[in-house]
Specification:
The chain is of the alpha+beta class and about 375 residues long. The protein is built from six helices and 22 strands.
């Protein structure tokens, strides 16, 4: 594991508050309904009216020629086009479930080529297609760009945010409704945003207490199947009642999440220690080499003066702090002990990893 320098900040987020109960949440906040979802749309078009911040690429020029041809304007094949006020862009949007023809949706416009900025530009009429190739919306309008860029004559420049991406609020008109069999299905299936067997059982139990003992049944850790009336008006009212039922979600699996890049450590509530001992201390090794001279005894003709080396090795270990945890030790005890030794984020990560490898800590250790 990478050891972080002292400039990183250790952040403890401790969810160990036994006196605080888990709050109930509405079913509409815990789940999504199977078959009720957004659909992604994408298109390719031109933004015009730029203040010299456009581009001249092969595909931009080809698109520009094609657009002019649709209006009956034929540009000679060898003719040069000046299109620095034009940019080729990709347009994408999300089509909400049950969106009807004539409704308006927001679109995002992004430059595809070398355009420096889309500020002040206007998107020309562009069809937006789904993954099946069918056109579901038509986009057009003036862009709202949050960023800007300025460049000086000497080549210096400054850019704030991203000027090559813009938005058009209510910039696309829905032209086709997405077909759905949601109203014809015998059951309504609720899918949990966070799969959990206990939460699924609790959700089905709450529905059955309100609507009848056989109204809902859990299918797996994600899905709960609920019987529903076939009449459209009754089904909508039925769903309105169900999605506002309060359910207390189960506590998640015990986890310790470590971000080795930022030095962030998040420890969940149900983390406990098995019997273990933790030692933390710095080992200092000092190696000294002193050069000396060896000479023969006075008036002794035999022998000669030589250079010698005297090596001394000192091993000094600072006072260790050792903490012994009995089985069932809590997270609070672990945190207090680790903080008491003044451990850096990298040291804390190493301690947690070693405890997990030794099998002395419950829950999962997740390194991101």
């Amino acid at each position: 594991m990478k050891i972080l320098s002292s400039k990183f900040i250790l952040i403890w987020i401790i969810l160990l508050l036994p006196s605080v109960s888990v709050f109930a949440e509405r079913i509409k906040d815990l789940t999504s309904i199977q078959g009720v979802r957004e659909n992604q749309l994408i298109g390719y078009g031109l933004v015009v009216g730029l203040d010299g911040t456009g581009e001249k690429t092969t595909y931009t020029e080809q698109t520009f020629r094609t657009m002019l041809g649709r209006f009956g304007i034929n540009v000679p094949a060898g003719g040069q086009l000046k299109i620095k006020n034009t940019a080729a862009v990709a347009i994408h949007a999300n089509l909400p479930a049950f969106a009807k023809k004539g409704q308006m949706i927001d679109v995002t416009v992004s430059s595809l080529g070398e355009a420096k900025s889309l500020r002040g530009g206007t998107l020309l009429m562009t069809p937006l297609k789904a993954v099946n190739g069918q056109v579901f919306a038509i986009a057009q309008g003036n862009l709202v760009v949050g960023g800007f860029g300025v460049q000086g004559g000497d080549g210096s420049s400054i850019t704030v945010n991203v000027p090559t991406v813009g938005r058009i609020p209510n910039g696309a008109s829905v032209e086709q409704t997405v077909n759905s069999n949601f109203m014809e299905q015998e059951f309504i299936t609720f899918n949990l945003n966070q799969p959990d067997f206990t939460t699924a059982v609790r959700l089905a139990k709450e529905i059955n207490q309100l609507l009848g003992s056989q109204s809902a049944k859990p299918i797996d850790a994600t899905s709960i199947q609920v019987s529903a009336p076939r009449d459209k008006a009754q089904r909508i009212n039925y769903l309105s009642v169900i999605e506002n039922i309060d359910v207390t979600p189960a506590e998640g699996k015990a986890k310790i999440v470590v971000n080795s890049r930022t030095g962030t450590i998040i420890i969940g509530k149900n983390i406990h220690l098995k019997e273990a001992a933790i030692a933390h201390g710095n080992l200092i090794i000092k190696i000294k080499e002193n050069q000396g001279v060896s000479q023969p005894a006075p008036f002794n003709a035999q022998g000669e003066t030589v250079e010698t080396q005297d090596t001394a090795i000192d091993v000094v270990q600072e006072n260790d702090r050792m903490f012994h945890f009995k089985p069932g030790a809590t997270l609070q005890q672990l945190v207090e002990a680790v903080n008491a030794v003044g451990a850096a984020p990298g040291d804390v990560m190493a301690i947690l990893e070693a405890l997990k490898i030794a099998g002395a800590i419950t829950g999962d250790l997740v390194v991101i």
